[in-house]
From TrEMBL:
It comes from Streptomyces tsukubensis. Keywords: Glycosidase, Hydrolase. This is Mannosylglycerate hydrolase MGH1-like glycoside hydrolase domain-containing protein. One of its GO terms (biological process) is oligosaccharide metabolic process. One of its GO terms (molecular function) is Glc3Man9GlcNAc2 oligosaccharide glucosidase activity. Residues 42-433 form the Mannosylglycerate hydrolase MGH1-like glycoside hydrolase domain. PANTHER family: MANNOSYL-OLIGOSACCHARIDE GLUCOSIDASE (PTHR10412). Residues 449-477 are annotated as: Disordered. Gene3D superfamilies: 1.50.10.10. InterPro entries: 6-hairpin_glycosidase_sf, 6hp_glycosidase-like_sf, Glycoside_hydrolase_63, MGH1-like_GH. It comes from the Bacteria.
Length: 477
């Protein structure tokens, strides 16, 4: 056993026990129209969480998975953005910060087309939604067609992608830019340390961090970083959430743009399914792929890097975001080979450690417990597993899948884990961990059948077949 692996990865009893545990988490976190990530730390609906949760929910209830996405997209702004939080008005304001009275979306976001009757945040998260919608459709195409699920979501998904490739193309070279560290999803990544160093933090006495009520301070962002997050959010709000305003923080992130490409391929399939022409989406996916390679690939680092649009140049930090482009269909073979070498190397140790860490193990800022600065996350590893499989790397994908399933059950579906030991970190009973466990279980159960087909990239019709009807709880919700 590797010396870094301080304790063995525990085994779970069996797949049925694991499935029941994951289902229990999702049922407990369901709030009638959507699923909260956790019952303490995250009491509202989060954007990319809901996309991952819908992917897992389709194995329990296709109708509930559809509603998850429908509820989120009902809060879409008129300019096309999908906000990263949709607030539940029944939750007290002091349960989470920044709360609705900080974002003031219905007033401050009026020029950008924020909904008047739903309070949301004003920033976004990675665009996994078209991919999720396509996978939910494939789980039960008859129900999807009968309910007009894709026909109703397609215009909203198209507007979302138009927003990212239009107003958010801040670099003018075709890629979507993120204007806040919370937007790429890897909130506290060392990749943001340089760009954030230019931001003056807001005074700590002007706000209260609710996250520390539910999480250990050693596992959360520092007060300095949090003050900078609040400053950026407040400035963006005070500028009316206008992307044309000067931005103190603006980055092109490889994970975000890789997911946009994967979802653009999925949107092409959705458009074809609903009677439209998929060609414009296929062409945009190709342009985005070319821009991703041209703008963010680093041969020196053997992976994709973030680009700082304010300070200029690539950010010399190796995070797991640079491996996520494995999900891109048609990524040039030499780049796939190099990414695999990097993933297996000393920085990430794919196949040696239970799961791939969120940041280079040898990096100067590595911390095995602090939020996004080293811990291994289930959603990132799920993306890597699918990317590996999509490029025909089934052996590596199988090993990663099986380790993820063992850790999910052994850690009570924790938010993230120590990459060395697999020890649970963050909050327990976490939504996307449970949901993606269900998806990996279904894939493992149908592995022989799926390998008889083409394993397939994101967004294609060659997806893992849904579980048999008897394996799904067809809740009429």
């Amino acid at each position: 056993m590797n010396a870094l692996l301080e304790t063995p990865v525990p085994a779970v009893a069996d797949d049925l026990t694991l499935r029941r545990g994951a289902a229990r988490v999702l049922l407990a976190n369901w709030r009638g129209g959507s699923t909260i990530p956790s019952r303490g730390l995250y009491p509202h609906q989060w954007s990319w969480d809901s996309a991952f949760i819908a992917i897992g929910l389709r194995h329990l209830s296709v109708r509930r998975a559809q509603r998850e996405l429908e509820t989120l997209l009902a809060a879409q702004w008129a300019d096309g953005r999908v906000p990263h939080i949709v607030f539940n008005p029944a939750v007290p304001l002091d349960a989470y910060f920044p709360s609705p009275d900080f974002w003031r979306s219905s007033r401050a976001g009026a020029r950008a087309g924020a909904p008047s009757a739903i309070e949301t945040s004003g920033i976004v998260q990675p665009p996994v939604h078209a991919l999720a919608a396509w996978l939910v459709h494939l789980a039960d195409p008859d129900t999807s067609r009968r309910r007009g699920f894709l026909a109703r979501l397609r215009p909203r998904l198209a507007a979302w992608h138009d927003y990212l490739t239009g107003p958010r193309d801040l670099g003018g070279e075709g890629l979507a830019a993120m204007v806040h560290p919370w937007e790429p999803g890897m909130d506290n990544s060392p990749s943001w340390d340089g760009p954030l160093s230019r931001v003056e933090p807001i005074a700590p006495q002007t706000y209260r961090r609710a996250d520390l009520d539910h999480g250990r301070s050693a596992e959360r962002p520092t007060d300095l970083d949090y003050g900078r997050y609040v400053r950026l959010a407040a400035d963006y709000r005070d500028a009316g959430y206008q992307d044309t305003a000067p931005q103190a923080f603006a980055v092109e992130d490889p994970s975000v743009n890789a997911l946009l490409i994967a979802s653009e391929h999925a949107l092409a399939r959705i458009t074809d399914e609903t009677g439209g022409d998929p060609t414009p989406h296929e062409e945009r996916a190709a342009r985005l792929t070319e821009a991703l390679v041209r703008r963010l690939w680093s041969a020196e680092y053997g992976m994709f890097l973030c680009r700082d649009l304010v300070g200029g140049g690539l950010v010399a930090e190796r995070s797991a975001a640079g491996l996520v482009p494995l999900v891109v269909p048609g990524l040039p073979a030499p780049l796939v080979e190099t990414l695999l070498t990097t993933a297996k190397g000393e920085g990430f140790r794919l196949g040696e450690l239970p799961m791939v860490p969120s940041y280079d193990l040898g990096g100067h800022a590595f911390d095995p417990s602090r939020y996004w600065r080293g811990p291994a996350w289930f959603n990132i590893n799920w993306l890597l597993e699918r990317g590996l499989r999509g490029h025909g790397l089934d052996q590596e994908a199988d090993g990663l899948r099986d380790a993820m399933l063992r850790l999910a059950g052994a850690s009570d579906f924790t938010e993230y884990v120590d990459p060395h030991t697999g020890a649970a970190r963050g909050t327990r009973d976490f939504g996307w961990t449970a949901a993606l466990t269900l998806d990996l279980l279904a894939a493992r159960q149908t592995a022989s059948a799926s390998r008889g087909r083409t394993a397939g990239h994101f967004g294609t019709s060659h997806e893992t077949p849904p579980a048999p009807a008897g394996e799904r709880e067809r809740s009429q919700v």
